[in-house]
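Entry 14. Ran structure prediction on the chain below.
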Amino acid sequence: MNPVAAVQLTADRRQSTGEGHQALVLLLTGSGEGLSIPAARDAEQARLEAEVLRRVCSMGGLSRHPLGIVRVRPQEDALSLQLVDEPVIIGHWVEFLYPRVSDVKDAGEDPRDRVGGVPGLRSARMPGGVRLYRPGLGAAVLLRGFSPGRWERIAAKREGAYGSLLRRPG
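Output, structure tokens:
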């Protein structure tokens, strides 16, 4: 396949995800079709991705990467996100994702209105980042592009208010 054709076949996915051409060209099949974005393998993977992104979407911002996401690498069994390596961004991700119950009395009648973060979410350190998951399920969101130690330090500061659920295995 000539290089110009390969660039055209990866163009849509590069624009949507921020992935590099060199990584995507390895996925080309030679059929002449552009690369699609792989769908989640199962409903739990899709649900975890949606809940994580729905929580951090409220972060907003006016920067080039308003959610702190530099690159997205979708796979069937995991969603890999490269984040901006800035403490304030990592802090916001921990704050928005950390499971917690608010003590605000005017949150509404329904107790679910008092729940913040992603219920049941846990994190585990991995080489080059942090793995977000729910115990017993195969779904995962991989956060990369920053030191996992930074995530752990920020999460540890939040434990006084929210407990250590996010980092407790099982």
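The first strand starts at residue 69 and ends at 74. Will compare against last week's run tomorrow.
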